[in-house]
């Protein structure tokens, strides 16, 4: 029997125009803590301060992000720069920084690459019942996105990371 070496804590982060959602895992389906940072004022600067506090507080061994490079994502320039800076902070602390595309995440969660973010969030809520009460309702095209969606996107990244890196352990 093969045993995987413990990885420590994994921090999954999903930057948005409002701030960022995050989920901290110590195992595939073992979230330790989670939250949504919605700073006021200079959002990028305040997000980075909050992010640094999370790194200092929990000292994770890896930071998991969704693809954010131009061409891989439809994110705005500020969000791409924020994600790149977060990755830089993690790299400066010798943390692993795996990055997964939305199609990879959806395939792990639902079994197909093309699903709505709400369907992926529902799959997260099924795997992590502790988050179920925070699940946002499905939105209509004309409605703004629920601020809680980023929490489920971050949790989905954490679940994906464990599924893809520990599936043979």
Explain what you see.
The chain has helices spanning 43-58, 77-92, 102-110, 117-127, 149-165, and strands at residues 10-15, 20-27, 30-37, 62-66, 99-100. It is α/β, with parallel strands linked by helices. It has one domain: 2-Layer Sandwich (Nucleotidyltransferase, domain 5), CATH 3.30.420. Strand 1 (10-15) and strand 2 form a beta hairpin. The N and C termini lie close together (9 Å). The model is unreliable at 1-5 (pLDDT under 50).
Residues in β-strands, percent: 15-25%
Give the total of domains: 1
CATH top level class name: Alpha Beta
The CATH architecture comes to 2-Layer Sandwich
Structural category is alpha/beta
Percentage of residues in helical conformation = 40-55%
The neighbouring-strand order within the major sheet is: 3-2-1-4-5
Radius of gyration: 15 Å
Task: Give the CA-based shape.
Answer: globular
Q: Helix count, per DSSP?
A: 5
Mean pLDDT: 87
Summarize the SSE layout with pairings.
Layout lengths: L9 E6 L4 E8 L2 E8 L5 H16 L3 E5 L10 H16 L6 E2 L1 H9 L6 H11 L21 H17 L4
Parallel strand pairs: 1-4, 4-5
Antiparallel strand pairs: 1-2, 2-3
Helix pairs in contact: 1-2, 3-4, 3-5, 4-5
Task: Name some characteristics of this structure.
169 residues; alpha/beta; Nucleotidyltransferase, domain 5; globular
């Amino acid at each position: 029997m093969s045993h995987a070496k413990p990885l420590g804590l994994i921090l999954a982060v999903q930057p948005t125009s409002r701030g960022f959602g995050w989920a901290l895992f110590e195992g595939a389906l073992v979230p330790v803590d989670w939250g949504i940072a919605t700073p006021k004022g200079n959002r990028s600067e305040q997000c980075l301060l909050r992010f640094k506090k999370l790194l200092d507080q929990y000292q994770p061994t890896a930071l998991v992000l969704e693809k954010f490079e131009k061409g891989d994502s439809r994110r705005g320039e500020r969000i791409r720069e924020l994600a790149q800076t977060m990755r830089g902070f993690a790299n400066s602390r010798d943390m692993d920084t795996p990055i997964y595309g939305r199609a990879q995440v959806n395939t792990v969660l639902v079994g197909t690459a093309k699903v709505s973010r709400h369907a992926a969030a529902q799959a997260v809520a099924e795997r992590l019942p502790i988050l179920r009460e925070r699940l946002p309702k499905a939105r209509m095209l004309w409605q703004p996105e629920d601020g809680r969606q980023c929490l489920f996107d971050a949790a989905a990244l954490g679940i994906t990371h464990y599924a893809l890196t520990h599936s043979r352990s």
